[in-house]
Amino acid sequence: MRFMSIVTSSDHMQPTPELLEAMHKLADREIKAGRMIDTAGLMPLATGARVTIKDGKLRVVDGPFVEAKEVVGGYAIFELQSKEEAVALAVEFMQLHKDFMPGWEGTCEVRAYFEPNAEGVCDPLAEARA
Amino acid sequence: MKAAGAHQAILAVWRIEQPRLITSLARLLRDVPLAEDLTQEALIVALERWPKAGIPERPGAWLMTTAKHRALDHLRRRRMLDQKHEMIVREMEEDEQIMPDLDTPLDDDIGDEMLRLIFTACHPLISREARVALALRMICGLTTEEIARAFLVSEATIAQRIVRAKKTLSESGLSYETPHGEELSQRLASVLEVVYLIFNEGYTAARGENWMRLQLCSEALRLGRILTSVAPQEPEAHALLALMELNASRAAARTDADGNPILLLDQNRDRWDRLQIRRGLKALIRVHELGGAGGVYALQAAIIACHAKAGTADETDWRRIADLYAELALLVPSPIVELNRAVAIGMADGPEMALEIIDGLRDEPALKDYHLLPSVRGDLLYKLGRYDEARQAFETAAALAENQRERDLLLRRAAEAAGAEKN
Question: Pfam family example for this protein (chain A) (predicted)?
Fold first, then answer.
């Protein structure tokens, strides 16, 4: 099963060198254990854009987006056996933040990738297959 | 915590920590089987305590401490018998007094240790089946029960294989080391073979009802990723990873909603996993950079890449596939490679030429009971309009197929040929 962990925060604190080192170590361990497939930090909102459809109109909005309270700081993609493993890794990752960046607040969200035939998901190609 | 939920959460943590625990302990104790036993013991202690106390903040360090205490107990008991162990005990005891920091052994670069562990688990002295079981258990953290379920054998059989393999490791006094030079490539070949064996067992489950057992595929992919990150200079490791990624990318398209197999050329390519294809092609580029494009896995990966790159079945570069099979046949002459080359020739140059190659293979003892030979032959005959012969070939193939799903497909094709004959 593939999972994406997404870190969001309304905090604009720069990660401390200790945290960066600890995260690097964790990522290195996970890559060498064959579990992590990809990971990256994300640049501030000002460097991005949003393309939206509202009231039938398509709009491109350059960042920063004033309405955005939470900023996605980074993501990681894992291939694991279970949600429990994904949660355990997210807990470990957040523990590093607790230890090495006191005062920081944020969220690590864990999402499973779509897989055909999985229960509780809509299959975009179901019709084509039937 | 609810008992069942806690149980699963503990197993998840343990699966993440386990290879590091084994590698760190094996380095301390110079004994892989003992390290594996102690890791299991640490899990049992965790299963007793964590449901009540909660999962500790640093579960890895907790498990390491527990395993180390067990190791000390164990070694103290054997101290009088073994001078080497006495020395290790002293080192460990001094370590504990001077520096009670238990994170350090976990934080060290585990790349080399992991490679050593893989080489030990896949040692040629151990039977191939036991190598598979050891790798899945020690490196991937699968339980004996999970391995047994994946390979459709009893749990007792797997447990026995593991015990016997560990005994072989202990008795032979194998040094827990990464081999060098010529020996490394020989041993690496054995490691890659084990990984590919696991993958293939999952990808085309030869026995049973299900065509695939995907969990084995993902564990093999995981082992492949470990190999490429701990031995990044080995082109064949990257090539095997490429081969597995590219094959696995088609998993969702290989069966229909009822579980019947869909042949490669009939597959809905929208269902191929693009991310996985990209990863496979990237690994293949790495193979070329390392100068290993002529390797056995590299050639096979290059063949699958031809399919992965073709937007539609018609766009497939069959000429290149035929050439790659010819190159592969020089490297590992085998009637199966020849059979596959015939299929490619059939697509590139027409069924007539392919049938000539196939008919040359009819007396190959290795293909005597191989259902794909009459299956391919049937397909070529069908294309040539020789429907009655095609029907006979498909029926022969169906009788030889061991997989129920494949047998059904072949019987359908036989009926198709019979229908065409009548018209």
Answer: YCII
Q: What's the one-letter identity of residue B146?
A: E
Residue pair B164/B130 in contact by the 8 Å Cβ criterion:
yes
* CA B380/CA B236 separation, integer angstroms: 34
Give the closest of B107, B110, B256 to A32, CB-based: B110
Decide if B303 contacts B322 (C-beta within 8 A): no
Domain layout of chain A by residue ranges: 1-110
Query: Can you read off the two tokens belonging to residue B169?
Result: 């490791």
The tokens describing B266, both together, are: 């009939």
Comparing C-alpha atoms, which of B114, B105, B168 is closest to residue B140? B114
Sign for the pseudo-dihedral over CA of A6, A11, A12, A13? negative
- Are A37 and B279 a contacting pair at CB < 8 A? yes
Closest chain B C-alpha to A113 CA, distance in angstroms:
12
Query: Domain A1-110 belongs to what topology?
Result: Alpha-Beta Plaits (3.30.70)
Chain B partners of A82 at a C-beta cutoff of 8 Å?
8, 12
Are B16 and A88 an interchain contact pair (Cβ–Cβ within 8 Å)?
A: yes
Question: pLDDT digit string (tens) for B171-215?
Answer: 876 666 677 777 777 889 999 999 999 999 888 764 455 655 778
ipTM over 0.85: no
Smallest Cα distance from B267 to chain A, Å = 10
CA distances from B161 to A98, B147, B166 (A): 44, 11, 9
Q: Which two tokens stand for residue B31?
A: 């004994």
